[in-house]
Amino acid sequence: MGTYWWKDRPEERFWLESTDRADIGADLRAPLADDAGRDNWRYTLFRSARPGDVVFHYDKRKAAVVAASRVSGPSVPAPIVWAARGSYARERGAKPTELPGYKVPLEDYTELGATLPLAVLRAAKSDLEALVAALPPGAKYFPFELSDRPVRPLQGYAFKLPAAFVQAFPALQLSSLAHKGLTATANSDAGAELDRFRTLLSAIEAAAAPFAIGRLQERRAHFRGLKRTSKRIFRDPPPAADWTFHRGGREELQFNVGLDTLADQRRSFRAGVAFSLEPSRSLPDVSVLEPKIARFNAWMREHPDAFAELSMWWWQGSNRSPDLPPGPISPALARAGVFIFLGRHTALDSADALEALRTLDALMPLWEWVEAGPSFQAPLANRGGLDTLRLEAGREIDGGRWIRASSPERSLDIYLRHAEIQRRLKLQLLAEGCDEVILEPPIGRRAIDLVARHGTALWFYEVKTGPDDRACLREALGQLLEYALWPGATKPDRLIVVGEPPLSNLGAEYLDRLNASFPVPIAYRQLTLMSMKA
Q1: pLDDT tens digits, 485-524
Q2: How would residue 380 be classed by pLDDT, with cut points 50, 70 and 90?
Q3: Is 82 helix (H, G, I), strand (E, B) or coil?
Q4: Burial 347-380 (b: 16+ CB within 10 A, else e)
Q5: How confident is the model at residue 184 (pLDDT cuts 50, 70, 90)?
Q6: Residues 441, 459: Cα–Cα separation, whole Å
Q7: CA–CA separation, 140 and 132 (whole Å)
Q8: 21 domain residue, yes or no
Q9: Lesser CB count within 10 Å: N end or C end of the chain?
Q10: What's the pLDDT tens digit per position in 239-284?
Q11: Contact present, 435 and 425 (Cβ < 8 Å)
C-alpha cells in the first residue's frame, strides 16, 4: 500500500465512512478488490485503521456527517455481498454479488448533537482547499471533491480525515463524543478557546480607557442617577461561560462579547450589542425591553448605513440565523426566547482587543440613544472635540502571524493582508525619513489605518485590499474625507490611499480632478506584498 501521509503522526486518527447503509455504526465492511479485481483504496483503506481510531459516518441519504464510532479491533477477513454504486456501475447494471472482503469492528456509536451537512462544507470550500493543500505531498485520501464545482463526496466508501478537519468544525467536537474519547481535541480545544476568550476580555478592559466604551459605566450612572459606578465594563463571566455582557446590562441594550461560530463552522470572537429576550431569574418579564427595541428600530431607520460594516444575527435555542445586514428588528423576532446581536465577529485565532474596542465604540451612539430615552442629546463635552486625533493611543502590529501563515491564508485572509500592508508601510515610511509613524490612532470613535508625521505636518493613510485601484479609491476616500473635513476634526496636510494594485491612467486622472477642487491633497501609493520580503 506504500507510505501514507499520516505515518508517524499519532494525532491523525480520524476516518470517514461514506455510505447509505441502514445499519451505520455496526462495523466497517468492504470488498478486498473492486469489480475489475484490483486493489482499490476507496474500498480497502479502513484496513489501515487502528484500534482506538475514530470513524465519522457520512450518511448519503441525509447528505451529512451524522455520527462517530471508535475502532475496537483490527480488520478480519469477512465475505461481503457488494455491488459498486458509481455511475459506470449503474450503466453496466451491476448486481450485488458475494465477494471476498474484510470487516473492522466498531464500538461507542454516537450520533452528533448537530449534524455536519454538505451545505456547510460547501460554504467552507476555500478553507477545505487550504487544509488539503497543507497536507504532505502525495495521495490525500480526502473524502470530498474540491474542483470548480460545488463540494461533493467522492465516489467510494473509505476515506481519511485530517485532524485539522475535525478541529475546524465544532459539530465534530461535541462533549457527547469527548466523554467517550471520540475526539482527541474536544476537551483541550474547548479549554483553549475559553482561555483565549478570557484573555481577550482582560485585554479589552485593560485597553479601554482612551475609548468611549471605557466611560460606559459613567454614562450609565448619568442616565440612571446612580451614585456608584463600576470601574469595569463587563461582568465576570461564570466559570464555564464563553460570553458576558456589561455590568447592569440585563435590562438594557447590552454590550456583549463572547464566542460564536462563523459560516464555515470555525470558532469566532464576537463584539457588539444585543437584546437578550431569554427570560431569567433576574429578568423574568422581557417585555420591559420592548420600548428599547422600538428606539433601536427608530435609530436604525434614521441611520440605515451607520453600521454597514457590521452584521446582525439571532439565536433561538440552538438555532442560529445566518449573518444579516443591520436593520430594524422585526416583530416576529421581538419575542421571548430570542437573542438578537449586532456587531462583528472574527476568527478566534486572529481576534484583536483593539478591533473589538473600535466596534464597541462605533455602537456607543446607538446605545446612548436607546438607553437615555426620548430626551437624549449628545453631551456638550463631546461636541467639537469629538474627532480629535489621539496619536498616543496607536498600536503595534506583530509580523509573526504573516510569517506563520500558510500560502492560502496569505492570499485569502484580507484581514491578515491588511495588517501586513500596514506593518510594512510603517517600515517604509520610517526608512524614508518620517519623524513618527503611528498605526491606527483613534480619531473620535474610529481609527485611521496609519498617520505619519513630517515635522508638524500630518499625513493620513488608509489601506485597502481591493482588486484594482478604482475599488481601493472608492472604499478609502469617503473615510479619509470624513477624517479630514468633519467639523471639529484634526486637519491633515495630505491624504493617501494605499493599495496593492498599481495606479492606472484613469485613476491618476481621477485624482487630478479631485485635487483641483478639494482643500487637502489626495494621493495613491502602491504597496504590494509580493515585492517585499516578510
Answers
A1: 888 778 899 999 999 999 999 999 999 999 998 889 999 9
A2: very low
A3: strand
A4: ebebbbbbbbbbbbbbbbbbbbbbbbeeeeeeee
A5: very low
A6: 12
A7: 8
A8: yes
A9: N
A10: 667 889 999 999 999 999 999 877 666 789 999 999 999 887 778 8
A11: no
CA 386 to chain centre: 31
d(CA 506, CA 524) in angstroms, rounded, equals 12
Whether residues 396 and 514 share a domain: the answer is yes
> 53: domain CATH number?
3.10.590
Per-residue CA distances from 399 to 404, 424, 433 (Å): 9, 9, 22
438 falls within a domain:
yes
Q: Residue 444 pLDDT more than 60?
A: yes
**Distance linking the first and last C-alpha atoms of the chain:** 41
Domain-embedded: residue 3: no
Helices (H), 179-336: 186-207, 216-224, 290-302
Structure-block grid coordinates of residue 449: 489605518
Domain end (from 162, 183, 204): 183
Question: Could you tell me which of 124, 180, 136, 123 has the C-alpha nearest to residue 162?
Answer: 136
Asked if residue 170 is part of any domain, the answer here is yes
Residues 378, 400 within the same domain: no
Contact 52, 13 (CB under 8 A): yes
Q: Give 72: exposed, middle or buried? Use CB within 10 Å, 0-12, 13-18, 19+.
A: middle
Residue-range definition of the domain harbouring residue 87: 14-183
Model's pTM, two decimal places? Answer: 0.44
pLDDT at res. 192: 79
